[in-house]
Amino acid sequence: MRFLITAALTTLAAGSALAGEASISIEIPRLSVSEYHKPYVAFWVENADGSKATTLAVWYDAKQKDHEGNKYLKDIRQWWRRVGRELTLPADGLSSPTRGPGTHQIVFDASAKPLGELPPGSYQLVVEAAREVGGREVLRVPFQWPPQAPTTADAKGADEISALTLKLTP
Amino acid sequence: MTKFIKLALLASAALSMLSASAEAHRTWLLPSATVLSGKDAWVTVDAAISNDLFYFEHHPLALDNLAVLAPDGKTVTPENIAKGKFRSSFDLKLEQPGTYKISVLNQGVFANYKLNGETKRWRGKPEQIDSEIPAAATDVKISEMQGRVEAFVTSGKPSEETLKPSGVGLELVPVTHPNNLVAGEKATFRLVLDGQPAAGVAVAVVPGGIRYRDKLNESKVTTDESGSFSVTWPGPGMYWINASVQDDKSKIKNATRRAGYAATLEVLPQ
């Protein structure tokens, strides 16, 4: 729940409670496997042609001794290649701990960084989950920014992410 | 190891690399990973001469001429160098973020000549030619070999410093970063010979995992006038690319020169 609070504080700190927001809901499946580790998950926004990417959040083991958890960041493979390797982690407002099975929600203020800096246009939300000794899955949800009306878009996954929903409020 | 055996190994490595068609053996370096994150990452690298890629089944690659360039352009000393029956290996600590180039450059001189009606073979170093090949020898054919084998690994953000050619023999100059290769995408590289564009050179691209398929699945591409060639990776995995040239540009008098290049490149899934 830590991250929810952080996200909420960010929203408040950014100003008006009436400001638009982007809410991402992700369902991580409960898996019957012999060795389970909570997945590393990266959330980022790409413009339609994929030429620019901005990280929204990364869930990983940031608290391990000597940043041991950073060793597995490259397993969030697409994110690592697109933008992850350019970052220095942990980073305030980006990194937070991994989450277990269940539905989790993160909320971003439309007027704050990084969404507030997005030029109007076509984008996609990309979410990639990679699990130690497990699999990897990438889901994409296209969207228009800024939203003209409340919109909801979703994507279903098969293995590592059950469902992904993006709710935009102008 | 005696000097003779060392030379013989060097020669066999150089030969097997340079005459891919006559002798099927392939020379390669195989890093345990090519894309790494986090501080103080390590890779371990296997080095071997084999038929199938990437299996240890013939001979270890001698590491006497191993050189590792760190992202800052300085050399790094490999650790735990070991030689087994079928493979050599070493470890590398990636202390700096960026791209490391791992190279083995084997150079040697080979000669055939006739003396008193008998055909003789010789191998050695350029400075030994005058003293070791008898003045009475006839039909002297000298060839210089330059065989280069490389691999690239990157910790964190890829860097460019180590990708510059050294100017010796046949080398690969990446246009697409060699640790940024993804299945289905096109990658472009340049081949240079002594630092100059190597035009019209055939480059063979072979995916690893040969043991578990019937076809070699080798693809061939020829470099253009700027020495450039492109490969669209059919799938993820480790690939071996190989090229060789023969010319008269040896610095050794009356010698032909054969220069070979091989690299192991990792292609990641989308």
What kind of assembly state do the chains in view correspond to?
heterodimer
Amino- and carboxy-terminal Cα gap of chain A: 25 Å
CATH class of chain B: Mainly Beta
What general outline of chain A do the C-alpha atoms trace?
Answer: globular
Cα shape of chain B = globular
Share of helical residues of chain B: under 10%
- The CATH architecture classification of chain B is Sandwich
Structural class of chain A: mainly beta
**Count of distinct strands of chain B:** 19
The biggest beta sheet of chain A reads:
5 strands, mixed
Main sheet properties of chain B: 10 strands, mixed
Q: Give me the Rg of chain A, rounded.
A: 15 Å
CATH fold-level label of chain A = Immunoglobulin-like
How many domains of chain A? Answer: 1
Give helix and strand order of chain A, one letter per element, not per position: HEEEHEEEEEE
Q: Architecture of chain A, according to CATH?
A: Sandwich
Which secondary-structure class do the elements of chain B indicate? mainly beta
Calculate the mean pLDDT score of chain B and round it: 91
Mean pLDDT, all residues of chain A: 88
The tally of beta strands of chain A, per DSSP, is: 9
What does this structure look like?
The complex is a heterodimer of chains A (170) and B (270). Chain A is mostly beta strands. Helix content of chain A is 11%, strand content 39%. The longest helix of chain A has 12 residues, at 2-13. The two termini of chain A are 25 Å apart. The model of chain A is unreliable at 1-17 (pLDDT under 50). Chain B has a single domain, classed as Immunoglobulin-like. In chain B, 7% of the residues lie in helices and 50% in strands. Chain B has 2 helices and 19 strands. In chain B, strands 2, 5, 6, 9, 10, 11, 15, 16, 18 and 19 form a 10-stranded mixed beta sheet that branches. The radius of gyration of chain B is 19 Å and the shape is globular. The N and C termini of chain B lie far apart (46 Å). Chain A binds chain B through residues 66-74, 77-78, 80-81, 84-86, and chain B through 35-41, 156-158, 180, 182, 268-270. Chain A: Residues 1-19 form the signal peptide. Chain A: It comes from Rhodopseudomonas rhenobacensis.
